[in-house]
């Protein structure tokens, strides 16, 4: 296909313009979920109580109408591009269907929800999120430029975050931790840790030109520096654990994710069954072994939430029907006053059990297990590392099915990237944006980067 060159003042080739437009949905989606459009410009030197009070108002109140309409409008815009090609549309459906099954679980929980309006509204938002992310991935992957688009966004966001170093009264909290354009260090740390690992993967497996390698190195040092000065211990620990694994083996990342699934299945299913067989109450046993001060107070939160989990452990309170319901969150009865301002359990797995029950949580974990094993020949390094990071992140933070949380959106992108490759090449060792270089002339013929993109 011949691409004509524009004779206008910009003189941009139609091919380059097409690539920019195909990466635009992904760029806008990531900019939205990382809050690049709405940075937190409040001074962080105010009293902590005032900050928590403002955050309570955000959690309890409904989002503005324009924010609620963004996902439907984004989905419609992606569909208008996708339905032009029957092949692309069929790929879009094949990528979307597995996640819609999980969305059906969320919608079905409205039948036993104490706050059906909140459950329905939040479940529909998740379904729209699935369709939007699938559209952004399919459009970008259609020309096999997802990695380039993601790297370009990482550089842009990194520069934007660094600009906040010039305004320390906004970008640092009261303890001197860097928060960037976000309200809290943990939120920034989750984003910085993810982009650090993405940069490591791009440098290790995808970078071909000198420019791409330099951009990767810039992101590694830039995000690493910001992550360190944020002092967000949880994502720093995740990065230190996953970065060597990502450099060592792509397959090890998949096994690591499966190991996390096994641990949580043991916690949720096998060990409770053993306790029941011995005549013990699993809930009371877990309460007895949780120190209330460990993991920076997280175990104290779980200690109190186990009481509410016990009320309906099988089906939960229904999706979106616990935190931020009504004028005040449900945690008012917890003895420490700052707990009443919580809006997550600081563990995605605990939140899933709390809201969806043990059955749906086990279904989600088993679904991930089947996905990781079935699509092992289609898994690419980038998708594998973001899925492993998300599963580890959810042990101590909540992002699974939690609104438009960046780590959750990134995990959806990783899942849909693999599904895209699997839909096209179910019986071949296809990697996202890359083909393994055949070792025809011996080991010395292989370049240091053993993966090259499709031309």
Q: How large, in whole angstroms, is the Cα Rg?
A: 22 Å
Total separate domains: 1
Largest sheet: 2 strands, antiparallel
Number of helices: 16
Mean pLDDT: 81
Strand order of the largest sheet: 1-2
| Portion in beta strands | under 5%
Order of helices and strands: HHHHHHHHHHHHHHHHEE
Unreliable parts = 1-12, 46-61, 329-340, 426-455
Distance linking N and C termini: 14 Å
Number of strands: 2
Structural category is mainly alpha
Choose one word for the global shape: globular
Helix content: 55-70%
Write up what this structure looks like:
With 455 residues, the chain is mainly alpha-helical. The chain has one domain. 64% of the residues lie in helices and 1% in strands. It has 16 helices and 2 strands. Strands 1-2 form a two-stranded antiparallel sheet. Helix 4 packs antiparallel against helix 5 and helix 8 runs parallel beside helix 10. The protein starts with 13 loop residues before the first helix and ends with a strand.
């Amino acid at each position: 296909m011949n691409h004509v060159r524009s004779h206008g003042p910009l003189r941009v080739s139609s091919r380059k313009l097409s690539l920019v437009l195909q990466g635009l949905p992904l760029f806008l989606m990531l900019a939205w979920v990382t809050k690049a459009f709405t940075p937190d410009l409040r001074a962080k030197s105010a009293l902590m109580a005032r900050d928590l009070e403002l955050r309570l108002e955000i959690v309890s109140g409904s989002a503005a109408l324009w924010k609620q309409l963004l996902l439907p409008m984004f989905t419609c815009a992606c569909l208008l591009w996708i339905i032009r090609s029957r092949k692309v549309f069929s790929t879009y459906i094949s990528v979307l269907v597995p996640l819609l099954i999980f969305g059906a679980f969320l919608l079905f929980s409205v039948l036993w929800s104490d706050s059906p309006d909140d459950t329905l509204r939040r479940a529909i938002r998740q379904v729209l999120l699935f369709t939007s992310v699938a559209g952004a991935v399919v459009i970008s992957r259609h020309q096999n430029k997802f990695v380039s688009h993601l790297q370009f966004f990482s550089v842009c966001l990194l520069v934007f975050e660094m600009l906040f170093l010039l305004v320390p009264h906004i970008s640092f909290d009261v303890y001197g931790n860097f928060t960037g354009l976000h309200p809290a260090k943990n939120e920034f740390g989750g984003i910085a840790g993810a982009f650090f690992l993405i940069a490591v993967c791009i440098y290790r497996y995808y970078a071909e030109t000198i420019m791409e390698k330099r951009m990767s190195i810039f992101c590694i040092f830039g995000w690493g520096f910001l992550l360190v000065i944020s002092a967000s211990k949880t994502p720093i620990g995740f990065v230190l654990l996953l970065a060597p694994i990502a450099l060592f083996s792509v397959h090890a990342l998949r096994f690591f994710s499966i190991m996390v699934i096994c641990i949580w299945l043991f916690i949720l299913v096998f060990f409770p069954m053993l306790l029941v067989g011995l005549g013990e109450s699993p809930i009371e046993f877990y309460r007895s072994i949780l120190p209330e001060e460990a993991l920076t107070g997280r175990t104290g939160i779980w200690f109190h939430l186990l009481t509410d989990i016990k009320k309906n452990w099988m089906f939960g309170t229904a999706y979106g029907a616990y935190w931020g319901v009504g004028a005040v969150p449900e945690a008012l009865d917890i003895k420490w006053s700052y707990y009443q301002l919580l809006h997550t359990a600081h563990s995605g797995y605990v939140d899933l059990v709390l809201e969806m029950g043990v059955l749906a949580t086990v279904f989600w974990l088993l679904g991930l297990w089947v996905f990781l094993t079935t699509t092992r020949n289609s898994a690419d390094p980038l998708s594998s590392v973001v899925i492993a990071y998300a599963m580890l992140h959810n042990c101590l933070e909540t992002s699974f099915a939690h609104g438009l949380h960046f780590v959750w959106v990134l995990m959806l992108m990783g899942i849909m990237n693999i599904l895209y490759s699997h839909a096209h090449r179910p019986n071949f060792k296809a990697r996202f944006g890359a083909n393994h270089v055949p070792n025809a002339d011996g080991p010395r013929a292989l370049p240091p980067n053993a993966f090259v993109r499709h031309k």
